[in-house]
Every structure is written in structure tokens, then in C-alpha cells.
């Protein structure tokens, strides 16, 4: 989920402040600090400290406790977001402790997501960057005001060093701990505006290469607490046998054998399956495997066949007489293409792919009367409150969510099906917590996959080979129709997240982007990079085809088309130099791709070889240059981009979910193929910040260019053979070679 945002109000007022971001507000009240879901010892210490606002607590010992509002799923936000506050409050990073925010959208919601608590869409840093820096700036001014009163000097004569207020003229100073020991909030509270933020070149922490992620040590020594690690007194365990085809319900349940399993306490019919509650996970699983269930036979998903539908979606994209919903239009692309001297037309298909997070779906819930507590590795605490309330028959304000560390997310943990499982079963044993764990097979077979999609691209060229018109049609199921129906309806049936990546920085005089919705009953969801991950494939491969038709170098052609985009030109030129684009390779070739995903600029070159007999592609190197705007944590940006490149190569070469008669055919990593360590390319990432720009989204930008860079390399290696269907399975490669 992406949307641009504009910071319109940047002043912090006395008892609260309101930051309006893209029409949404984030209100931060000054006062008490809620109990966090993680870090009990730190939370206990913070509860008794000085609280200048709901984000920061300063202890008499100088320890500064900062709330992290976003979910940590390996992308580093538990470090980077508190770092923003620490930067502008001049905290000593060595004395900073971080705790996870509770579920409270009014205080901790993301302005980039309309003020709700949701981590995803590469929106976290973009949404919180300015607000959290302002929190830090005002916290610093509060410490200055208190110190001025204590030292009996004007606040304007004071400066700060890490965790200390200094009066240079008299040589006196006060540590933040000393201020906290007896401090009271000044009245009126000093205001903070954008002018109070440190210039980037004066920042102590932003941009530094040597600040490690605070979550890593605990993950290394095993003390990190993920959702699957939650243990509560008197806890039960649950699992759910789900219908093999979505939309079906249990019509008859023979549970005699299941009830005989020692440790089974309850068998619960559900609308979507049968739940088992037991004294251990093993007991619940063994009982579930003994259930005999007769399922209904009425779901329209039973007609879902992914291979057949891939062809149908391709045909829908090609059928220019079938109208689509315009996602973007400039000029009359249809007329421009009709009058072109030459037209390049191509179709691109992307199969369903699964999130395959290392930690399978899980959640723990406790229902007591009309109150609910949930412990979960969730990307969306606000949505969790809503769905848990619905499942328990209460209201969201009666639901408390403890967000644990996430063992991977990629959009999957923005869903609530595993939350609903836990709450539904906990409701049956009121007063006792129930931990629901999905097996890997459950996870693979019942995911919310990236949509099956087909793209039809037509590009009109004039006699000189220049682009005069571009038409891009995306045929796919909608994510927003299910997850954000009001937005979907309000946009006239346009799914902007599915069409992301079709509007690009290249100078094209006329273009038309259309969404042709397909609806075959299967739920689809957000997957890392969402629309960019599929649509960049079509855009970047067609750009290469146009360059070939024109007889020009793909690097030079992109630089020409990006003539008014200096940041884009920079990354394209830099990555070509890194990869030594002009140097001949023996038996290998290079391919280039670029993206402007999530406000960043990213260019990649892939070096590949091909076994023509087997059809297997080997990726040897991927070079990448990324401009993230402000680089808050450069080393973490490198790591995130490298991880996204692995994901991008894996889904381009191997990953696919096949559905036959509504049933998923894959079940675990033996059948759902992902890239293995022995297949890993060498990855070379260079971060080239532009500090005058606000930070871009970074967790996903590395994924979209990888697949088209591989495809373009294969085309250069084979004299123009174009791969047009993700993943590039050996049989598909051999078919393309023989076409």
C-alpha cells in the first residue's frame, strides 16, 4: 500500500500536537506512558520516570526509554524510528532503551496510513520521519526550559550535548537524569517547528555507518521474543483444520478419533473449518489429523485453475475492446499508437507467489468477558483490534494488542485470519489464553498470495524509433476490493496498489494505464513490493525491447528517457559503471533495470549465464545503486536492498503457487521452491543518498528491478529471446528458446 504524502503543518503546541499528513492527522498527547508489549524491565523503569510526552521517558539514572510505533519484522524500524527522536532530543544513544508501542492509533498511528497503526508499503520511515524528529526536537526544548529554570539562566544561553544541557558561560551543566529526577513540565510547553530540526550535516546519528540494530543481539543469542515464543500461565494450544477450498464449510464432522487423543480439551466447529484446543500443540495437531470432515461443495473457487486463468487474464489484457478503469492517462495514447510507424506489443504474466515467512502464522488470545488481549506478530495492531473485537463479540476499545517481533512479514501479517483463529478458540475457553500455530503446510496452502496478473503493453514508435505512445493494461484480481472496499469503490473500481509501477519516470509523451479487474473468488493480498514487483517486469523489459528496435544501448536509452530525472540518471549511470557494462563476458551477459518504487530510485544490473540444454538460468552477480533520499541508517539500507534482491531473484526464477480446482498444490519448501544458498548470486549494493530529499521507502525497492534485469540479460545472451512469464522455469525458458 503506497500513497504520496505532504507534510502541511509542522508545529508542536502546548498539550498536544496535530500533524496533518496527506489529509490525515496524528495526535500526540502529553502525559502518561502506556505499558509496552515488550521489554518488561525497561517498561517498569520507564513507568516511574519523567515523561515529557507519550513517546519518551527519562529516568533519574539518565536512561531514555523511547517507544517504537511500528512492527519490527527484520527491516530495522525498532532502531531507525527511535533513532529519529534520539537525534533531535540529543539523547545519548548508548543510554537509549526501546519498547514496542501498545495498540493505540490515536497516539502512535502512522500519518502515512491515515493515522492507523500499520507497518507496510514502505511507508514507515516516510510516514514517521518528520513527526518523530519533531517529537525529539520538542523533548529537547522541554529539557532546555527546565534546565533554564534550575540554573536561573535564559534558555537561549543553553545548548545540549548527548544527554546533557550545558551553560557554557558559567561552565555548569545538568544531565538529563538530573533534570528528570525533579523535573516538571514547563507551562507553557515550548513549541517545536521544522526550523528546530538539525540539518542533516550536523546530525550525530542519522547517516552514521556504525550504529547497529538493537534487535540483532537478542536474535543471535535466542532471547528475542517472537509471537511463536509467547508463553502465558494456564495456556492452551489451538489449531484449525481449514477447508481445502476457500468458501467451503464443514457439513458433517466425525470427531470420535480426535476426541480420544489425550490432552484434547475442545473441538470447535467454525464457519471456515474445525478448531481443536488442547493442552499441547502436539495433541491439538494429532487430533486435527484424525478429523473426518465432509465439506460443502458450493464455493465458486472450486472452478479456480491458475494455469487456465493465466491464459484468460492474458486474453483479457489483449482484448482492447474490453474497457478497463483508467489508472493514469496523459494525451491520447490510443490515437498515437494507431498512427505510429511501428508498434511493439508484448504480454507479461506473473504467477501467484506465497510470502513464505520463516515464522509461520500464529497468535495468542485471552478472552475475559467483553475484554480481549492478543499477543501476535502482526503488522497491523489497529486492524487486529477490529477483527479481534468482531470475533469476540465486543468493541475494538476493549481489545489490547501486544505486538511481538515478527519472523518476516512481507504483507502477510497485515492480514487477520490467524488472529481470528486465536480469538475464536479463546472465546470457547474464556479466561484461559489459547495459542494458535499454523503449520508450514497450513501457511503455504492458505496464504493470501500475490495476485495472478497479466500485462499487455503496446508502444508506438515513430520512424526514428522514438516512443510516441504507451498503453499498459493490467488484468488481475483486486486486493483493495477485499481489504479496502470503500476506497476501491470510491476510485471507481481502480486498484491502485495492483497498478503500482506502471506510471514511471521515463519521458513518454502520451500514455494510458488501465486496470481490468478479474474476479474468480480467490482472496489475494499484499506481497513485498505489490504492484511494482509485477509491473516493473513489463515496463523494464519493454524498454529494453524498444532500445533493441532502435539499435541503441539500453543504458544510454534509459539515460535519454530520464533526461529530466537527475536522481534516476545518477543510479542508472552509477550501476552501469559498477558492473563494467561495456566489458565483454565469456558465456555471460548483463541486463539492466530501473525503478522509482516507493519514492526511491534504484537501478540494477544482473549478470547471468544460461544452460540451453536444461533451460536453467544462473545469476552470478547483481549490482545495485539506490538513492533513498536521506539515508537514516545506510548499512541497514544496504541489508534491506540485498534481502529484496534475493526475494526478487527467487520469485523471478522459482516461486509459484499452482491452484487446481480451487486447491493449492504446494505444501512446504519441498514443493514451494525458493532460492537456496547454493544459488545465491554475489550482491553488490551502493547507497547514494541525496540528503536534501526526505527519506524514501526502502524495504521493497530492491525487489522490482531484479527480475527484469535477469530477463534482459537473457535476451542479450541469446540474441533477443524474451522471457515473459514469472517464474522463469526451465521448461518455459526452453520453450522461449525454441519459439
TrEMBL record:
GO terms, molecular function: oxidoreductase activity
One Pfam family of this chain: MoCoBD_1
InterPro entries: Ald_Oxase/Xan_DH_a/b, AldOxase/xan_DH_MoCoBD1, AldOxase/xan_DH_MoCoBD2, AldOxase/xan_DH_Mopterin-bd_sf, N-heterocyclic_Hydroxylase, OxRdtase_Mopterin-bd_su_IorB, TAT_signal
Residue ranges of domain Aldehyde oxidase/xanthine dehydrogenase a/b hammerhead in the record: 221-299
Domain of life: Bacteria
Alphabetical list of Gene3D superfamilies matching this protein: Aldehyde oxidase/xanthine dehydrogenase, a/b hammerhead, Aldehyde oxidase/xanthine dehydrogenase, molybdopterin binding domain
PROSITE patterns documented for this protein: TAT
Matching PANTHER family: ALDEHYDE DEHYDROGENASE
Name of the molecule in the record: Carbon monoxide dehydrogenase
Amino acid at each position: 500500500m503506497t500513497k504520496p504524502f505532504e507534510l502541511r503543518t509542522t508545529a508542536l503546541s502546548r498539550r498536544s500536537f496535530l500533524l496533518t499528513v496527506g489529509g490525515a492527522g496524528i495526535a500526540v498527547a502529553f502525559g502518561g506512558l502506556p505499558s509496552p508489549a515488550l521489554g518488561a524491565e525497561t517498561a517498569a523503569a520507564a513507568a516511574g520516570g519523567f515523561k515529557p510526552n507519550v513517546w519518551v521517558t527519562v529516568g533519574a539514572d539518565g536512561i531514555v526509554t523511547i517507544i517504537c510505533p511500528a512492527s519490527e519484522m527484520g527491516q530495522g524500524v525498532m532502531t531507525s524510528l527511535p533513532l529519529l527522536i534520539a537525534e533531535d532530543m540529543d539523547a545519548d544513544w548508548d543510554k537509549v532503551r526501546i519498547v514496542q508501542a501498545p495498540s493505540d492509533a490515536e497516539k502512535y498511528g502512522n500519518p502515512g496510513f491515515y493515522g492507523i497503526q500499520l507497518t507496510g508499503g514502505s511507508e514507515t520511515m516516510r510516514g514517521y520521519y518528520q513527526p518523530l524528529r519533531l517529537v525529539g526536537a520538542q523533548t529537547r526544548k522541554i529539557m532546555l526550559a527546565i534546565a533554564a529554570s534550575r540554573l536561573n539562566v535564559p534558555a537561549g544561553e543553553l545548548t545540549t550535548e548527548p544527554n546533557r544541557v550545558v551553560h557554557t558561560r558559567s561552565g555548569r551543566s545538568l544531565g538529563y537524569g538530573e533534570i528528570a529526577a525533579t523535573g516538571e513540565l514547563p507551562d507553557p510547553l515550548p513549541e517545536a517547528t521544522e526550523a528546530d530540526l538539525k540539518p542533516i550535516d550536523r546530525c550525530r546519528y542519522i547517516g552514521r555507518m556504525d550504529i547497529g540494530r538493537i534487535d540483532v543481539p537478542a536474535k543471535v543469542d535466542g532471547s528475542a521474543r517472537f509471537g511463536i515464543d509467547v508463553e502465558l500461565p494456564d495456556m492452551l494450544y489451538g489449531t484449525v483444520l481449514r477447508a481445502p477450498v476457500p468458501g467451503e464449510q464443514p457439513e458433517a464432522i466425525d470427531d470420535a478419533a480426535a476426541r480420544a487423543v489425550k490432552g484434547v480439551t475442545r473441538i470447535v466447529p467454525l464457519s471456515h473449518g474445525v478448531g481443536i484446543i488442547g493442552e499441547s500443540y502436539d495433541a491439538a495437531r494429532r487430533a486435527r489429523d484424525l478429523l473426518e470432515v465432509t465439506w460443502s461443495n458450493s464455493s465458486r473457487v472450486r472452478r479456480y485453475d491458475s494455469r487456465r486463468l493465466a491464459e484468460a487474464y492474458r486474453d483479457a489484457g489483449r482484448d482492447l475492446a474490453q474497457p478497463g478503469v483508467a489508472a493514469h492517462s496523459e494525451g491520447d495514447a490510443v490515437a498515437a499508437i494507431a498512427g505510429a510507424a511501428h508498434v511493439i506489443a508484448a504480454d507479461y504474466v506473473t504467477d501467484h507467489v506465497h510470502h513464505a515467512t520463516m515464522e509461520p502464522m500464529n497468535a495468542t488470545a485471552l478472552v475475559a468477558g467483553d475484554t480481549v488481549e492478543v499477543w501476535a506478530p502482526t503488522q497491523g495492531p489497529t486492524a487486529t483490534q477490529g477483527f479481534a473485537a468482531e470475533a469476540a463479540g465486543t468493541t475494538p476499545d476493549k481489545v489490547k494488542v501486544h505486538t511481538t517481533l515478527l519472523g518476516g512479514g512481507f504483507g502477510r501479517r497485515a492480514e487477520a485470519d490467524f488472529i481470528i483463529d486465536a480469538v475464536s478458540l479463546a472465546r470457547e475457553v474464556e479466561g484461559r489464553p489459547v495459542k494458535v500455530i499454523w503449520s508450514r503446510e497450513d501457511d503455504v496452502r492458505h496464504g493470501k498470495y500475490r495476485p495472478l496478473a497479466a500485462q499487455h503493453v503496446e508502444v508506438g514508435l515513430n520512424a526514428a524509433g522514438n516512443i510516441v505512445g504507451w498503453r499498459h493494461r493490467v488484468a488481475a484480481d483486486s486486493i483493495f476490493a477485499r481489504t479496502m472496499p470503500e476506497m476501491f469503490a470510491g476510485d471507481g473500481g481502480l486498484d491502485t496498489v495492483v497498478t503500482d509501477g506502471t506510471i514511471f519516470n521515463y519521458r513518454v509523451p502520451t500514455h494510458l494505464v488501465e486496470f481490468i479487474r478479474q474476479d474468480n473468488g480467490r482472496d489475494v493480498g499484499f506481497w513485498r513490493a505489490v504492484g511494482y514487483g509485477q509491473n516493473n517486469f513489463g515496463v523494464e523489459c519493454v524498454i529494453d525491447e524498444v532500445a533493441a528496435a532502435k539499435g541503441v544501448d539500453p543504458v544510454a536509452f534509459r539515460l535519454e528517457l530520464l533526461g529530466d530525472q537527475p536522481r534516476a540518471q545518477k543510479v542508472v549511470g552509477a550501476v552501469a559503471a559498477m558492473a563494467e557494462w561495456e566489458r565483454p563476458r565469456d558465456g555471460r551477459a548483463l541486463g539492466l533495470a530501473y525503478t522509482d518504487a516507493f519514492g526511491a530510485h534504484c537501478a540494477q544490473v544482473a549478470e547471468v549465464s544460461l544452460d540451453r540444454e536444461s533451460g536453467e538460468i544462473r545469476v552470478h552477480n547483481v549490482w545495485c545503486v539506490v538513492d533513498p533520499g536521506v539515508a537514516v541508517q545506510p548499512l541497514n539500507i544496504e541489508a534491506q536492498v540485498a534481502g529484496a534482491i534475493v526475494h526478487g531473484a527467487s520469485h523471478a526464477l522459482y516461486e509459484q503457487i499452482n491452484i487446481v480446482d480451487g486447491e493449492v498444490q504446494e505444501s512446504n519448501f519441498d514443493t514451494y521452491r525458493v532460492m537456496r544458498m547454493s544459488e545465491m548470486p554475489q550482491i553488490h549494493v551502493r547507497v547514494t543518498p541525496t540528503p536534501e530529499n526526505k527519506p524514501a521507502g526502502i524495504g521493497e525497492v530492491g525487489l522490482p528491478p531484479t527480475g527484469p534485469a535477469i530477463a534482459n540479460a537473457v535476451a542479450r545472451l541469446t540474441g533477443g529471446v524474451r522471457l515473459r512469464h514469472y517464474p522463469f522455469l526451465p521448461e518455459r525458458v526452453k520453450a522461449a528458446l525454441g519459439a
